Amino acid sequence: MIDSALDREQMAEYNVSIIATDKGEPSLSFSTTVTTHMSEINDNAAVFHQVSSLVHVPENNPPRAPIAQVSASDPDLGPNGQVSYSIVASDLEPRTLSSYVSVSSQSGVVFAQRAFDHEQLRAFELTLQARDQGSPALSANVSLRVLVGDRNDNAPRVLYPTLGPDGSALFDTVPRAAQPGYLVTKVVAVDADSGHNAWLSYHVLQASEPGLFSLGLRTGEVRTARALSERDAARQRLLVAVRDGGQPPLSATATLLLVFADSLQEALPDFSDRPALSDPQAELQFYLVVALALISVLFLLAVILAVALRLRRSSNPAA
Question: Which residues form the Cadherin domain (predicted)?
């Protein structure tokens, strides 16, 4: 008789020794051993070795590269202990899940199917399932959270100053009586990256009058460093570089055109003497005229040469 529930995973085999004894004088007995083997049923679900996992993957990772691995074990025997892995839930779009990640049903290795972009996808979560082959099948789930790390793959983008319709830089006016520290303008830039990769710094690359303006390293504010003197030109040009904090850093440039004037009407004539752009149609017509003139000259030379040869032959009696 079975006194309590038996568990094959704890004890797979029992050896029971039975002794039969009579009540005679002297007492005689006989003993035998009964060996009992426990049969297998699918009474254990797979158990993951980790409750949950957090994985860091840098962006621009190589496609079809492994990014994580989960493992589970099942103490049952045969098909009841054979575990296969699958993805059963995710916060990604179900239609696009297979284009992002996949899992090996045999090993539990999770693969990235594409290169991740931190600016488009910063984190996502998967629910992985380990399922045995028993009947009925038993399963267990585990959560896997993937964090997409940032890389410095975006250069700063200058929002101001903008370019005019013809592609030229716009200009800002500065009062002639501006005192040191006067806020002239501000260079505005953004970076799509995160963290240190998005920390911007502003530097002056070229200045038509060094020392006349100062530039905020972190703010991008352009201020007058001193008062305008009579020797300073009314038109000033600054070439500003915007760098991020990545390694290696990426940068962009902005051109500032500054005019010292007390009004916009006074500043406009300074830019009216720009050389006019050449007309492509006029240049084409010029080249056509030159080509026709060359062809005409060559034709006249050929005619003169032919007439000269004809006259020379007619003057020769032997000919």
Answer: 6-48, 49-158, 173-271
Question: What is the tens place of the pLDDT at every residue in 254-293?
Answer: 999 999 988 766 656 555 444 444 556 667 788 888 888 8
Domain 47-149 adopts which CATH fold?
Immunoglobulin-like (2.60.40)
CATH number for the domain whose boundaries are 157-261: 2.60.40.60
Helix (H) or strand (E) holding 188: strand 188-190
The bridge status of strand 251-260 relative to strand 171-174 is: parallel
Whole-angstrom distance, CA of residue 262 vs CA of residue 173: 8
Backbone angles phi, psi at 82, to 5 degrees: -85, 120
Could you give the CA distance from residue 41 to residue 310 in angstroms, rounded to a whole number? 119
Distance CA 168, CA 266 (A): 20
Got the DSSP string for 243-291? E-SSSS--EEEEEEEEEE-SSHHHHGGGGTTSPPPPPHHHHHHHHHHHH
What is the spatial distance between Cα 152 and Cα 162, in angstroms, rounded to a whole number?
24
d(CA 107, CA 90): 20
Domains 47-149 and 157-261 share a fold: yes
Q: What DSSP string describes 190-235?
A: E-SS-GGGG--EEEEEEESSTTSEEE-TTT-EEEESS---TTS-SE
Distance CA 52, CA 127 (A): 10
Considering only CA atoms, give the Rg of the chain.
44
In tens, the pLDDT along 146-197 reads 999 999 999 999 999 987 666 666 788 899 889 999 999 999 999 999 999 9
| First-last CA distance in the chain | 145
CA 151 – CA 123 distance, rounded (Å): 15
C-alpha to C-alpha distance for 190 and 218, rounded to whole angstroms: 12
Two tokens, residue 155: 């250069």
Domain boundaries defined on the chain: 47-149, 157-261
Whether the CA torsion 182, 188, 194, 198 is positive or negative: it is negative
